[in-house]
Amino acid sequence: MDTKILKPTEKTMKYAAKLLKKNYVIGFPTETVYGLGANALSKEAVSRIFKAKNRPEDNPLIVHIHDIDQLEDITYPMNDVENKLAERFWPGPLSIVLKAKSSMPKNVTAGLDTVAIRMPAHPIARDLIKISGLAIAAPSANISGRPSATSAKHVFKDFNGMIPLVIDGGNSQFGLESTVVKVLDNYIIILRPGAITKEMLQEVALVKDGEIDNTDTPLSPGMKHPHYHPNAKITLVKGTSNGEIKSKIKQLIAAEKRQAFFGFKYLINQDLFSKYREVVGKDRLFDYAQNLYSFFRECDEENIEEIIIHQVPKKGLGYAIMNRIEKASDIIV
Ligand code: TXA
Ligand code: MG
Fold first, then answer.
1. What is the best residue among 172, 180, 223, 290 to mutate for testing ligand 1's pocket, by most ligand atoms within 8 Å of CB?
2. Residue 10: which H helix or E strand, with range?
3. Which atom, in ligand 1's list, is nearest to the CA of 95?
C-alpha cells in the first residue's frame, strides 16, 4: 500500500473521511501526539489498528469525539464529577474513562466494560471527526513500545506501506499523550499523567494517583507494557541538587560512545556529546515535553548509543514527564 502524507486541504479531509468510512486506518494530528485512527464502531477497522501497531490485545484504545452528543450511543450518562471534567477540559488533552454501552466493539475496550473518551482540541482532528461523522478510535501513532509520533514524518516512518494516509498537521503542541482519568466515588484517579495536571484536576475534585496501587491488575492496562523506547539505551540521572546531577552526568561521559544529552543547562561542555539539546524558553518543562519523543527518534537516526537525561521536579507537567522517562529509562543513576 502506498502511504501518502498530505496537507489538510479540503480535498484531503474529504478523502480522509472517506477512508475512515471504508474502515481504513489513517494517521492524523492531535494537540498531544499523532493518532492512528479508525472507525470506533467497526470491529474490523479497529482490529486493523492493533495489527498495524503490533499492539497487545489487552490494551484498550481511546475513542475521540467532536461533541458530547456523540456519547449518547457509546457511553452511559456521566456523573457530576465527570461532567465537570468535560466542561472544564474538553476539548483538550484529557481522556475520561466512562462506562461503555454494548455498541462498543470488544476490541476497542479490550473486553473492559469501560471506554476512554477524549474530545481533542486540534482543529484537524476535530474536522476529521466532524466530516466523517464517526467516533474515531485512536492510539498514539507509533509501533507498540516505540516513542509516540509527534510529526507526520514519524508516523510515516513507523507505518509506511501499512496505511494509505497521514494528514500532516506539523509538530504536536504538547508532545506527550493525554492525561487519562477515571472517576471513582467522586474521586479522580489519574491513570496516566499528562498536560492536564494533578493541580488542575484538583480544582474539580479530590485526586488520587492510580498507577501507584495497582501492580497485578492495573486500572489502566497500557501502563504495564514497555513504552516510549528508542534504540539507544537511556540513562536517567537523579539527584537532590543541581550539583549532584551535574557531577553524575560528568561521570557518565565516555569518549568512545556516541552519547546524547537532553535537558536543562548544566554547564557541561556540549562538545563532549555527539548530540546535545538544551531545553529552553520561559516554560522549560513545556519545551522538554514537546521535544522529548522527537529527540529520541532523532537519536535513532543518528545512531546514538546512549541518551543521558535527568530528572525534573514532579510538579505540574514535570509529573507526566517523569512518568514517561522513568518508564523509558534502562538505567537510573
Ligand atoms: O494523547 C493521547 O491520548 C493519544 C492521542 C492520539 O489521543 N492517544 C494515546 O492512546 O495515547 P494510547 O492507546 O497510546 O494510550 C491509551 C491509554 C493506555 O494507557 C490505555 O491502557 C488507557 O489509555 N485506556 C484506554 N482505555 C481504557 C479503559 N477503558 N480503562 C483504563 N485505561 C484505558
Ligand atoms: Mg501509546
1. 180
2. helix 10-21
3. 3
pLDDT of residue 220: 63
DSSP for 11-49, written as a single string: HHHHHHHHHHHTT--EEE--SSS-EEEEETT-HHHHHHH
What would the pLDDT profile of 232-268 be if each residue is shown by its tens digit? Answer: 999 999 999 999 999 999 999 998 999 999 999 998 9
Q: Which domains are assigned to the chain?
A: 4-208 (3.90.870.10), 233-332 (3.40.50.11030)
d(CA 142, ligand 2 centre) in Å: 7
| Model confidence, pTM | 0.95
Residue 184, φ and ψ in degrees, nearest 5:
-130, 125
What residue's CA is closest to ligand 1, atom 18?
222
Whether the pLDDT of residue 89 is over 70: the answer is yes
Testing ligand 1's pocket by substitution, the residue of 31, 140, 146 carrying the most ligand atoms inside 8 A of its CB is: 140
